[in-house]
Specification:
The complex is a heterodimer of chains A (about 260) and B (about 400). With about 260 residues, chain A is of the alpha/beta class. Helices cover about 50% and strands about 15% of the residues of chain A. The radius of gyration of chain B is 19 Å and the shape is globular. Classes of the chains: A alpha/beta (about 260), B alpha/beta (about 400). The interface of A and B includes residues 54, 72, 153 and 185 of A.
């Protein structure tokens, strides 16, 4: 069983929901990310999504765009992100790690080389935002052989046919984008999400994580009633931006702690 | 060469093209693809398109023999396809008319567009006014500063111009921002992409609408010269004017197809926008194509004196025509383009767009090496009125 599947199985047995935070690697400073990841785990996170900076983050809202720009100025590319994961793994061999980013940095490294390096670094899953299943079959196959889960997005506009193809190519969990738009701009509507999830559950037994627009304990708790995991990205990235490098760890812990509590309440 | 019938059903030209977008856009693109497939086979839709091209755009555009240029060079005869004479002054409107009709067919009341130099933005604002649609144009804040006149033109036409402050604040970032708008407002909004790039069906659809250029040439050249040209030359940024004139000639193996990219300050300087001549394949803006990128796969900033060529990618069909060897791609520098700009002004009384001046510059290079009975057909894709400030600045003249 993969680390991600094991994590969801253990949570299910305990009657708990997964908390999945996102941070952009190398933001605000290259040295910030490893301490931030450990802090997120201490505050009660179950799986970590690490953003790979890209020059043209087409699906992201302003907060994650700015974090990407800061990370790129810090010289953070895909190789540096892999090194950050290697550093993190020295002190944490349990928490599943998912890389999230865009296709071009992976293709520039070479798909096979990336999968080998990701496996060696201890990465458990990948979300490649602009790789729909029909464009990346060889990549999915390479990841499958390396034991890396391929996590795909589903949207409110996804047709039954697309849900089926994503359910077939996906592993680890499914990432349901809770609203139309880019990351972190609007607020999530839990009732709308609840209405959409049954048709996804009918097509797949994978756990469903919901993200885009979850900003606080209240919205996280509402989503956790219907989903298996709550994914929080832009809100954390904003907190890091306003805190700056020195205060980021404390502020992120203070943000995540109450959300964890609300999920377990 | 086998019969050329591309792209495939998912928008691939060989290994290029495709649909590399987030799931949030997949449904909108499926809808667009289906609507376009219906419209392109609908005689009433196509009749309306051609009626607009005739009475609103002013087509067919003439072909002009640049006799004094040709005589001075002493080689091949240079002919110019006069897209600069279209309404709004460039080929861009052929595509925006087609897409606005499609938007109306799909019941969308709001159109959005990205623009670099502003020509596509102006063409989009124009058709939005023509068809009574709301129009929002995304433009990099650097480009807004460089192209104030076009910003004002768009506003006169009733469009809202939104300066984009992310990334390099140029065309590629405007395209990112337009995509973000589209994904957030997908029900009532139609995204008019200005070039043969982006996810399927855009590269095919924009090519189809622009191919009126080449279709006309195939009729006009025999009337004028008794035969088809030996080579067709067009500038390539994203590549829509080039695709429009090349496409009908792809099956004519005797006709060389030559795309001219922006070499900026020279390919060796790194300050250029020549994705095909100096780039490598990758994924950007929804398709796989040649890109200017660094070793980490980050898209690099580009340079050209011509804002319309200042783009780090290129249409995927050009990428495939390059790999097939069916089209040749070369690059000319800012200085060479400026010289051609001046030559065409002085010798023919035509002020070309700086983009089109790149194609003219290569024709001026090539012609002397060919005999006088050879024929070069250059796509003069736009007029240069918009470039007065840029050219004057470059020559140290204050207007």
């Amino acid at each position: 069983m993969s680390r991600i599947a094991g994590c969801f199985a253990a949570l299910k047995a305990a009657g708990r929901k997964a908390l999945i935070p996102y941070v952009t690697a190398g933001d605000p400073l290259p040295a910030s990310t490893v301490p931030l990841l450990h802090a997120l785990v201490e505050a009660g996170s179950d799986i970590l999504e690490i953003g790979v900076p890209f020059s043209d983050p087409m699906a992201d809202g302003p907060a994650i765009q700015r974090s990407s720009e800061r990370a790129l100025k810090n010289g953070i590319g895909l190789s540096e992100v892999l090194n950050i994961v290697i550093q993190f793994r020295k002190n944490d061999s349990v928490t599943p790690i998912v890389l999230m980013g865009y296709a071009n940095p992976i293709e520039a490294m070479g798909v096979e080389k990336f999968v080998t390096a990701a496996q060696a670094a201890g990465i458990d899953g990948v979300i490649v935002v602009d790789y729909p299943p029909e464009e990346c079959a060889p990549f999915v196959e390479l990841c499958r052989k390396a034991g890396i889960d391929t996590i795909f997005l589903l949207a409110p506009t996804s047709t039954d046919e697309r849900i089926r193809s994503v359910a077939q190519a996906g592993s680890g969990y499914l990432y349901y984008v809770s609203l139309k738009g880019v990351t972190g701009v609007k607020s999530v509507d839990a009732a709308e999400v609840a209405a959409q999830l049954p048709k996804i559950r009918a097509a797949s037994t994978l756990p469903i994580g919901v993200g885009f627009g979850i900003k606080d304990a209240e919205s996280a708790r509402a989503i956790s009633k219907v989903a298996d995991a709550v994914i929080i990205g832009s809100r954390i990235v904003q907190e890091i931006e306003s805190a700056g490098a020195e205060l980021a760890v404390a502020r992120v812990k203070a943000l995540i702690g109450p959300i964890r509590k609300a999920l377990d309440a | 060469m086998q019969m050329y019938d591309l792209p495939d059903a998912r928008g691939h030209f060989g290994p290029y093209g495709g649909v590399f977008v987030a799931e949030t856009l997949s449904h909108a693109l499926d809808e667009l693809r289906d609507a376009y497939q219906r419209c392109r086979r609908d005689p009433a839709f196509m009749a309306e398109f051609h009626n607009e091209l005739k009475h609103y755009v002013g087509r067919p555009s003439p072909i002009y023999h640049a006799g004094r240029c040709s005589a001075q060079l002493g080689g091949a005869q240079i002919y110019l396809k006069r897209e600069d004479l279209n309404h709004t002054g460039a080929h861009k409107i052929n595509n925006t008319i087609g897409q606005a009709l499609l938007a109306r067919h799909m019941g969308k009341k709001r159109v959005i567009a990205e623009t670099g130099a502003g020509m596509h933005g102006v063409a989009a604002a124009t058709v939005a006014a023509r068809f009574g649609m709301q129009c929002v144009v995304y433009m990099g804040s650097e480009d807004v500063k460089r192209q104030l006149q076009n910003v004002y033109r768009m506003k006169l036409l009733g469009a809202e111009v939104v300066p984009v402050e992310s990334g390099s604040r140029t065309l590629k970032d405007a395209l990112n921002e337009a995509m973000r708008d589209w994904v957030s407002n997908v029900e009532d909004t139609y995204y008019i992409i200005g070039t043969v790039a982006g996810p399927h069906p855009y590269p095919m659809m924009v090519r189809d609408f622009q191919s009126v250029i080449g279709e006309e040439c195939k009729l006009q050249m025999p009337e004028l010269t008794g035969r088809q040209p030996d080579a067709v030359i067009a500038c390539v940024g994203g590549g829509s004017n080039a695709m429009g004139i090349f496409y009908p000639y792809i099956g004519d193996q005797n006709v060389r197809l030559i795309g001219v990219e922006a070499a900026g300050e020279g390919l060796a300087s790194g300050k250029h926008a020549a994705s095909l001549c100096a780039g490598t394949p990758g994924v950007l803006h929804g398709n796989r194509t040649y890109l200017l990128q660094d070793a980490n796969g980050q898209i690099t900033e580009t340079h050209s004196i011509s804002a319309g060529l200042d783009y780090p990618g290129v249409g995927p069909e050009h990428a495939w025509l390059k790999d097939l060897g069916r089209a040749e791609y070369v690059a000319v520098t800012d200085d060479e383009a400026l010289k051609a700009f001046n030559d065409l002004c002085r010798l023919e009384g035509i002020i070309p767009a700086l983009e089109s001046a790149h194609a003219v510059a290569y024709a001026l290079k090539l012609a002397p090496s060919m005999s006088k009975d050879k024929i070069l057909l250059v796509n003069l894709s736009g007029r240069g009125d918009k470039d007065m400030q840029t050219v004057a600045d470059r020559m140290g003249i204050k207007l």
